[in-house]
Amino acid sequence: MKNRVYRYIVDKLSQGEKLHFTLVDPDKAGNLDKLEELADLAASAGSDLFLIGGSTSVTPEEAGIVADTLKKTGLPVVIFPGNINCLTPRADAVLFMVLMNTLEPYYLMQVQVLAAPLIRKYGLETIPTGYIVFNMDTAVGHVGRVYPIPYSKPELALAYGLAAEMMGFKLLYLEAGSGAPSPIPPVFPQVIKRNTGLITMVGGGIRSPEAVVELLKAGADIIVTGTVMERDPVKGVEVVKAVKSYRGRDTSS
Ligand code: 1GP
């Protein structure tokens, strides 16, 4: 089926679910038995999908092996590419992203042009995604030459969101950066949900059920976590369960 992964996401959201995505960085995944164990843990806690990607040092071979391992759970595996080296035909789809607040032309259009023929050859589904990084003090902030959005200016983030919607992106990923000391403030997903029809993903620095609830309440549709599951699997499971058991109404409407 065309757009299989995108439909999977939209169908779940339209049934009123909030979604949790587990990020695995192939460069940090360690041995495959441990990865399989963590993947099973995330899947049985209710995580909806695996993202694979990292800002540095991922080889296509590693990305492929990690994709195969994660696919054993039966969940979709989607590439969240730091660069072309993360692409593998063994995933189900790729977030076809534009890092909207970069100062580096490579991430605005060049890498997409380089990647497109490979993606076509691999037969990967593409999910058009606007990507905004808030925190400079992270690997993605540095590698992506990010022009940060001040935390006191949600209206600037909204301008990016409106542009993303007008350009036809389906998802908007609001990112604090992997391992960030704290998540982005909830006002950011809130302002995007109030004023656009974009599916809003939030990630980076989310390590507690309380942080999850705040972001979901503000209107986030999808919560992404990586570090918490690697460092503290018990907490990681709690975070996934907080997403999947959330029943509150969001304050964006
Ligand atoms: C990275 O937002 C994700 O894109 C995950 O961040 O590792 O901090 O959970 P964490």
TrEMBL record:
Requisite cofactors: Mg(2+)
Residues bound to sn-glycerol 1-phosphate: Y173, L174, E175, A176, G177, S178, G179, G204, G205, G226, T227
Catalytic activity: sn-glycerol 1-phosphate + (2E,6E,10E)-geranylgeranyl diphosphate = sn-3-O-(geranylgeranyl)glycerol 1-phosphate + diphosphate
UniProt cross-references to CDD domains, sorted A to Z: PcrB_like
GO CC terms of this entry: cytoplasm
Compartment(s) where it occurs, according to its Swiss-Prot or TrEMBL record: Cytoplasm
Broad EC category: transferase
Record-level Gene Ontology MF annotations: heptaprenylglyceryl phosphate synthase activity; magnesium ion binding; phosphoglycerol geranylgeranyltransferase activity
InterPro entries for this protein: GGGP/HepGP_synthase_I (IPR039074), GGGP/HepGP_synthase_sf (IPR038597), GGGP_HepGP_synthase (IPR008205), GGGP_synth (IPR010946)
Chief site of localization: cytoplasm
GO BP annotation list: glycerophospholipid biosynthetic process
Residue numbers binding Mg(2+): D25, S55
The EC number(s) this enzyme carries: 2.5.1.41
Pathway membership: Membrane lipid metabolism; glycerophospholipid metabolism
UniProt family annotation: Belongs to the GGGP/HepGP synthase family. Group II subfamily.
HAMAP family in the cross-refs: GGGP_HepGP_synthase
Protein purpose: Prenyltransferase that catalyzes the transfer of the geranylgeranyl moiety of geranylgeranyl diphosphate (GGPP) to the C3 hydroxyl of sn-glycerol-1-phosphate (G1P). This reaction is the first ether-bond-formation step in the biosynthesis of archaeal membrane lipids.
Protein name (record): Geranylgeranylglyceryl phosphate synthase
